[in-house]
Amino acid sequence: MVIRLLRNIKSLYGKVLQKFDLIVKPGKAILMRLLKRGLISLTITSYIGILLFGIFSHTFSYKTGRHPTMYYIVWDMFCGWSAFSIRTHIVGEGISGKYYELAPGPWGEYKPYGNLGRRHYDTTGDAWLRMAMNTLDKTEHEPMLRILCIEEAWCKKYNLPDSVWDQRYESPKDFHNYFRLRRVITPDGMIAQNYVPWLTRQRYLQINDNPRLLADMSRGRPFFAATIGSRVEPEGPQHDPDVPIRLASPVGN
Amino acid sequence: MDAKEVISAKSHSVRNPFQRFFFAKEVPYGLAIVRMLLPLVLLGTVCTRWSFSRELFSADGAPAPLADIFGFYDFLPVLSGTVAVGLFAALGFFLLCSSIGWMTRFSMIASLVLYTYFCFMDCISMATKYSAIASHVLFLLSLSNCGAVWSIDSWLKGKQVKKSLPEYTKYEMPRFEIWPQRLMQILIALIYFGAGITKLHTAGYLEGDQISYWAMSRYNNPHPLGEFLTMYPVILSVMSYVAIVWEIAFVFIVWQKWGRIFGLVLGASFHIGTFFSLGLYIFPMVSISIYFCFLTEKDVQWISAQFRRLCRKGNWLKQYSIAISSAVERLRPQKNAGWKSPASWSTAFVAVLFLSIYVEHQQDIYGLRRAEGRMALHELAPETIEKMLAPEQVMRQKDKFLSVDVGTQMVAGWLTNRKSEFMLGDLILVQCCLNPPHEDIWIDCHFCEENGRIVHRTGNIVSRENLRNTFQIYANEALEPGQYYISIKSKGVEVLRRSLTLLPKMSAVAN
Questions:
Q1: E strands along A37-168, which residues?
Q2: From CA B158, how far away is CA B101, in angstroms rounded?
Q3: According to the 3-state scheme, what is the secondary structure of B156-216?
Q4: Considering only CA atoms, which of B240, B192, B194, B190 is closest in space to residue B214?
Q5: pLDDT value of position B159
Q6: Tell me, what's the pLDDT at A213?
Q7: Is the pLDDT of residue B66 over 80?
Q8: Phi, psi at residue B221, to the nearest 5°?
Q9: ipTM score assigned to the predicted complex
């Protein structure tokens, strides 16, 4: 009797479970599917929204340098190219008066995009200090007095191969390079002096080649430094702090 | 009741186009090709950098974190030398696995994380716009089911499925919603749109000056075609117009039937063009490999139908394809346990990790463990350093000038027919090109006889924003035919010269 009762309860329980499954399982599946579809829709809209923000930011120069991730949504390929080739030399001056090459290190240099060493692509000079200190750290050398970062520039027309040059010019190549000290670093890694790039300097000199402008500038500037941090010599054109100095990486980018 | 019936893709609501665009189901052939190609290209860049990874990416070298430029110092941790070397090699392993589709999802996610990290660690030699694009694509691939076809995973899974199905049942390729593929297409379209906006912002782009200077630079790989094209700047100008129109129009045409073909063919030509004319190697490979996300299931069916037709016609091709497929079947493991693939993958990963660390340790890039001691610095020659530290030099006048050309016809501000021979009575156009930056400059243009006697003298002020000036010289019929030259002078010094010949005017002769 009891066993029969238990069997009946068990079969009833089984039937209830079956009915429950019939109701709940499709509901659960629908819910999961809706949830999945909702998540996907959210992903799609967020992703497209981020990409569109990058386009907006770039088009109107709005907060393009606010965060490193902006590099991943601002498509500023082709930032602009100058008429001069620029190269970087990092040199150490020893106490004996001899000068040593600190970049590339004696072990060689990585050439990322062609035949040029990595240091030449560092247009901002952010890694010069690290490159120099790394070389000093890993080599045998006399004590250093100072580290010099020097920029070399020359007119790009002299890069043309002879076959093209001969068709375009009647005179032979008269190659001339210009050097400019960009940074002086102490042996313990402190930046002692910093100078603007050669091209910026040229632009500044050319703007200054105007007596009326110079007269206006000196009229508006006190003879003595009147405020804390004011400079006696102007730096040249100011840079918008909100816009990062473009990497100007020449990689097609 | 099935869930599919509740959320019908055929509902006649306003969401219908959106649903169809993002949630239609297709076999992910296109994404599978992107998955195979892009990681292979990136693997190449990883392999070339690996032996320098300690120097480029670790605290034991000279990394250049991208975040530093934005003023976010210590944005990401800089790893120790050994860890960076091991993880960089692991990145190579993950990229290879992603390409062949072995543990695809995990390999793809690991590739994405490590690749983006290493790009952030060195903005000089690793972070470029192609690597930013690659990170996006890796992200979208890791969301997709790109490993469901043409992969090791599908190959192993196919065996299990085939075994469980009865003989008469046809095995169908898996189909998935295409939204990751659509996102990749939208990404490409918006990248081009953004690049077009950049070009609109760039002064001197449409005139071809910027491309011309790029072609003269040596920052990239050799590009003889680009150097040759600097002689024909009008071609560069036309190409610049085509590129900017195509980049902006791409987003509007690429989802049309013929627009897609036109946009992609033009895009591929553009990228191949940058390979030859600008020396860009990786960027075109990345770009063209991601173009395959525009490949649809129908395209693949059409291509395979063509291939089958070709097979039927050519017996040798049929034999080859049968031989290849039977070889693949022979290679397929006979008994496949679910745990074997992840276990062998993990073993391979650990092996790569430790082997790379060991090899790099033996390599001793800095020479710290050499028997003869540490390396010595290279001393610079005194004359070299003397030149480098010389007082500031004023830019030479001749370096402010790019070229002088003579001709008779101009298009888009450029002289199009360079000539050295003119008839008496011709109007000679002398185009003088300047290099930026230059000040407001006075240029003298002298038309001289061979012996130096000035026949005609003209001049003009070229303001700092202008890079070209064209002088007009009338070859007066009173002049003697013979050799002449054009002399361009600045501040009293000749900076450029161009020789030309004046020919007598031919009169009409009656037959």
A1: 84-94, 99-103, 139-140, 144-155
A2: 13
A3: HHHHHHHHHCCCCCCCCCCCEECHHHHHHHHHHHHHHHHHHHHHHHCCCCCCCHHHHHHHH
A4: B240
A5: 64
A6: 84
A7: yes
A8: -70, 165
A9: 0.89
- Mean of all residue pLDDT scores within chain B: 90
Range of weakest confidence among A66-80, A102-116, A239-253, B48-62 = A239-253
Are the Cβ atoms of B390 and A54 closer than 8 angstroms? no
The confidence score (pLDDT) of residue A223 equals: 64
- How much is the average pLDDT of B366-389? 94
Query: Which residues of chain B from 375 to 394 reach within 8 Å of chain A, CB to CB?
Result: 375-380, 382, 385, 387-390, 392-394
Cα gap A40→A90, rounded to integer Å = 51
Measured in degrees and rounded to the nearest 5, phi and psi for residue B101 equal 75, 40
Interface of B with A in 393-432 (CB under 8 A): 393-396, 398-399, 402-403, 405
Percent of chain B past pLDDT 70, that is, above it, reads 92
Q: What pLDDT shows up at residue B181? A: 96
Residue B72 at interface with chain A, using a CB cutoff of 8 Å: yes
Distance CA B445, CA B14 (A): 68
The residue assigned the tokens 């007598």 is B504
Q: What is the dihedral of CA A210, A214, A217, A221, to 10 degrees?
A: 170
- Residue B356 above 60 pLDDT? yes
Interface A:B, Cβ pairs < 8 A: 299
- Compute the CA torsion angle A193, A194, A198, A200 (nearest 10 deg): -140
Provide the whole-model pTM: 0.88
Distance from CA of B473 to the nearest CA of A (A): 20
SS3 A89: strand
pLDDT in tens, B84-118: 999 999 999 999 999 999 999 999 999 999 999 99
Instruction: Name B253's Cβ contacts closer than 8 Å, sequence gap at least 6.
Output: B259, B260, B262, B263
Residue pair A84/A155 in contact by the 8 Å Cβ criterion: yes
Task: Please tell me if residue B163 touches chain A, with a CB cutoff of 8 Å.
Answer: no
Predicted local confidence at residue A179, as pLDDT = 96
Give the C-alpha distances (Å, rounded to integers) separating B28 from B174, B180, B299. 8, 10, 12
Residue A83 to residue B435, Cβ atoms within 8 A = yes
Question: Rounded to whole angstroms, how far apart are CA atoms A227 and A64?
Answer: 31
Q: Across the interface, do A75 and B70 touch by the CB < 8 Å criterion? A: no
d(CA B508, CA B503): 15
User: Hey, how many other C-beta atoms are within 10 angstroms of the C-beta on B414?
Assistant: 22
